[in-house]
């Protein structure tokens, strides 16, 4: 096995943090990748400032967070490539799948940025029209969380569904405010820890159904190429074989749960030496270590982390 054969993992919403691209931009000043230079004009918003100086409050808005996270990951990917490192397979958590598709040559980065911006705006609109929320349930298995959601539905206490299968002991639920509250209370009765997520809309559940066709129309305006490297879909936990399959997965992603636990297991079967989280934060690093402890997982969201990842990947197997 070659030491540099690695899987790139691209983070989704929840990984944003203030000034998350500032260190990367300082590194990027030597190479002048185009992302920060033209992103503002592409979207008509101060994305450069938000990536370099944005506050936690500014980045909490879904319509802002999503393009900012994607852009930060793209810069990190380019800087990893400048270090002579190219992923052999890729996956992205929720919106991170757009970045994975750029890495695989399926989407042009400008198309991905516009799509993610529109996606964030649509999701934010759903959150305003039908207030809801999300919560992470820790310490009990997904089957029990599914049972809780079904029980809440039967009792008419609101809508709540599994949104993310993150690991064996971490499951995220999404739905109406009352539904998430009812499920959270039931999970605590079983001994689970429950953490309310700071999001502006209930992602990955049936409440997003109203925007599915609208987003499908946006996807239809964009060219999707055949992947140059495998991209494992979070909808099916299977590789996307062609452009139409990738577009269909992005549409289904709005209402479908993120099967991250299965995705990481599928990636582990690709004979990779390492998982590299390319972008802001360490959410996927921590999940990777929990799901597949036999495969090293390293973050690559700062210049220092990129250098450390390069050293690790070049080390003898």
Account of the 3D structure:
The protein is of the alpha/beta class. It contains 14 helices and eight strands. The strands form two sheets. A four-stranded parallel beta sheet has the order 2-1-7-8, sandwiched between helices. The longest helix has 21 residues, at 62-82. It starts with 5 loop residues before the first strand and ends with a helix. 52% of the residues are buried.
Task: Offer a few descriptive terms.
single chain; 317 residues; alpha/beta; 4-stranded antiparallel beta sheet; 8 strands
Briefly say what this structure is:
By secondary structure, the chain is α/β, with parallel strands linked by helices. 49% of the residues lie in helices and 14% in strands.
What is this structure's SSE topology?
Layout: E1 6-10, H1 22-28, H2 35-43, H3 47-53, H4 56-60, H5 62-82, E2 89-92, H6 96-103, H7 109-129, E3 132-138, H8 142-155, E4 160-167, E5 170-176, H9 177-189, E6 193-196, H10 212-220, H11 243-252, H12 260-268, E7 274-278, H13 283-291, E8 297-300, H14 303-314
Parallel strand pairs: 1-2, 1-7, 7-8
Antiparallel strand pairs: 3-5, 3-6, 4-5
């Amino acid at each position: 096995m070659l030491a540099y054969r690695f899987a790139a993992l691209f983070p989704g919403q929840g990984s944003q943090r203030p000034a998350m691209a500032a260190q990367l931009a300082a590194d990027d000043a030597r190479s002048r990748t185009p992302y920060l230079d033209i992103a503002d004009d592409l979207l008509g918003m101060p994305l450069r400032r938000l990536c370099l100086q944005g506050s936690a409050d500014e980045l909490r808005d879904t319509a802002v967070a999503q393009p900012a996270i994607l852009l930060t990951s793209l810069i990190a990917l380019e800087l990893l490539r400048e270090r002579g490192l190219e992923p052999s397979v890729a996956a992205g958590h929720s919106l991170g799948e757009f970045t994975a598709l750029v890495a695989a040559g399926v989407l042009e980065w400008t198309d991905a940025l516009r799509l993610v911006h529109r996606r964030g705006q649509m999701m934010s609109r759903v959150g305003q029209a039908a207030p809801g929320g999300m919560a992470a349930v820790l310490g009990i298995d997904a089957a029990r969380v599914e049972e809780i959601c079904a029980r809440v539905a039967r009792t008419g206490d609101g809508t709540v569904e599994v949104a993310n299968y993150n690991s064996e002991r971490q499951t995220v639920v999404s739905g109406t405010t009352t539904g998430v509250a009812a499920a959270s209370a039931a999970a605590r009765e079983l001994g689970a820890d429950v953490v309310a997520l700071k999001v502006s809309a209930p992602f990955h559940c049936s409440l997003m159904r109203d925007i599915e066709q609208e987003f499908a129309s946006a996807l239809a305006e964009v060219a999707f190429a055949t992947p140059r490297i495998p991209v494992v879909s979070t909808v099916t936990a299977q590789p996307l074989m062609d452009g139409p399959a990738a577009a269909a997965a992005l549409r289904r992603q709005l209402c479908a749960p993120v099967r991250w636990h299965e995705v990481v297991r599928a990636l582990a079967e690709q004979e990779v030496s390492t998982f590299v989280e390319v972008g802001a934060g360490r959410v996927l690093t921590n999940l990777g270590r929990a799901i597949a402890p036999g495969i090293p997982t390293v973050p690559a969201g700062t210049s220092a982390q990129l250098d450390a990842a390069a050293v690790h990947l070049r080390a003898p197997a």
